[in-house]
Sequence to fold (374 residues):
Amino acid sequence: MSTLAHVFEAAGIATVALGSQKNQIKNTAPPRGLWCDFPLGRPLGVPGDPDFQHKVLEAAFELLQATGPVFEEYDVSIEDDPTEMVSCPLPPRHDPDAHPAVDEARGLRAAYDRAVEKYGLRVGANRTVDADHVIDAIEAFVRVAEGTPWKEAGIPGIPARVSQDIRGYYETAALALSDRTPAAYATTRWFLDQTETGKVIMDARQAMADAGVKQPIWFFMTPGDR
Amino acid sequence: MTDRALKAMTEDLETPDFEDPAFTLPVPLEQAKVAIVTSASLHHPDDADFEPTDTSYRVLHADRRDYILGHWSPNFDATGYAADYNTVFPIDRLDELAEAGIVGSVSQVHLAYAGNQYDLATIRMDTGPAGAKFLREQGVDVVLLTPV
Fold:
């Protein structure tokens, strides 16, 4: 981000850079940098809150008054509450012959479709694996978790990308199941800690690590602090 | 899993030095044409998706709102963007500022790159300057840079 700021300034365009990581934006020193202590992925702070977003922009554009390089810290922080988890009802068991994760994912399809209808398809489940093939992808990870070598399990793409699409499918469905926009990472915690498919992904990742698979292949299947 | 833990994983990453950095004095904001440049790997559905090491850029059109989040990192929250694209790409907010006369105008084109890159040389020497040249040709005076 800051690299682009320097390049664009050299081309005669004035820039204002927002940054969520203090050390990164401070050390790369864009000509005008505003560090906002907001969760990663939310540089304007609060989704669905135009007033909040306008205040951030006002502080950012204020930096254009500076006559030399300037770094400022925004005076509002948004702390991530690591205990906050979105409260989403999970579908009851429907097909006792299906793996619980598969049964669950099928049950979430209607919620996923409602969220896409309301918000558009902006994240997840349509890049490596579309919603119609999420079940196939989950079944592949079930096989990995149960001991099948990952290359023989039928994962329909690079494991981290497929995993990200599955997570996106669930997190998109969660938007339709929650009565408000979830706090940052609340749906990720829900997916990884509460859902059957989240457990499958975690178990598959662990199985790959235990089998000696190269770390980059499995590590990025979940956030890095898992 | 916490935001603090995820940030701590990368806070000590080596950062590039920029000797004698440029500093462009802008025209007054109420006269400026403003564009957004984001490192969130946004793209339209009919554009090519980003690869993780992709140093090129995509053009985002202001008369559309079908921006797909294409960043491959698992280490950020995506639901804020899913619920409101302005959380990353505040195009509606810029339109409102232009309507209020606070900014001169909003560019009809904006740019997206893929952040989290290690090959900064290509961005510094090639695709970054190309994107800047493109925006200059559109008459852009001020760029707002947003990450994820």
